[in-house]
Protein farnesyltransferase subunit beta
Amino acid sequence: MEAPVPEQLTETQQNQRMVEYEVARIYDFFLRAPRSAQEFMLELQRENHIEYLTNGLNHLGPSFRVLDANRPWICYWILHSIALLGDSVDAELEARAIDFLNRCQDSGGGYGGGPGQLPHLATTYAAVNSLVTLGSHEALSSINRHKLYTFLLQMKHPSGGFRMHDQGEIDVRACYTAISVASILNILDDELVQNVGNYIQSCQTFEGGIAGEPGSEAHGGYTFCGLATLILINEVRRLDLRSLLDWVVFRQAGLECGFQGRTNKLVDGCYSFWQGGVCSLLKRLSLDIDEQSVQPDAREGSSFDDLSTGVDTSRKVNYNDVGYEFIKKHPSSQPLFNSLALQQYILLCAQVPEGGLRDKPGKPKDYYHTCYCLSGLSLCQYSLSNEDSPPLPQAVAGPYSNLLEPVHPLYNVVFERAIEALDFFRGK
């Protein structure tokens, strides 16, 4: 009788088993712990997170040199996280942040990764969101919208997409950052929108998710960017929403209960927002999804308004109202994922009690994952209610003191700051 052949695992399978083992160990310890210990483990360590974030805004060590071209992103990750936690920076730190971001603003429009650096759509998005999060008149008035619009037009590509920077790559991320910034600043128009829907539609894959560019693999970050962009330009019905829904709900991992970014990939705390955000947006599109199920060809040439709200789309679309009005559309379905289980993953596996959040057990904390884990946690908490009304206690994992500020799911800034910015720039 031949001896059994040892099971050969790929590197991905080995990593998956290691993650499942670590997560299972944490969950088992939690379930065996006394009630008082469980309550502590599920508590959001708010003060520790705020201290970690504020320290980062004041000073970064030499290891952050590798992020020299991403400094507006660091500002955004930290400022947004602090705002989600219901806090704000003091007047001196706010003034320093505005001054720094203003020095990142290129004379020709847009923001670079640091003073004197090439303007880039990603860091432009981060800088604008940072200033929207600060929310003061000084912060919002520091944005040169006229020159920023010129920069956005320069990045526009004949395919309908956008380049990230001069002669840079064209992808769905560039489309989102350009359209999101233009929308919240009230400078979105037909010229910027032209053929964007064609480009993003070409990036939806056979799985249902959206890739970064045509022919690539569906990815959670790009799926959020593509879906949010099409909502903002009033063309979301061009997507196959049913297959997108099927793809995203299966990205919540079984044992871990966090989200993975792609099929057969490891769970990662940041997808709590990227995939959770997709689910949050799809909840508001449930009628559109049902319509597509009945009429599979309905997405050809149709838009959000004509099939969902009865608005006559023969009139000229005011794109700058779309993001404002969409959020008022009450969710008409239950959460599309296990919200409490995802909150448990964030609090038990992604949270570092001393301050900061991380990708998964065994990984270090960082500002990026702190930002997107907290954004995802906020979406979870409000998944059974609207952003302008408090959730019921049973919707919040752990003590009710864990409740964060609601996040606007199209822009990923605190809901109140987004509405204030939309109102501020409407008058410009």
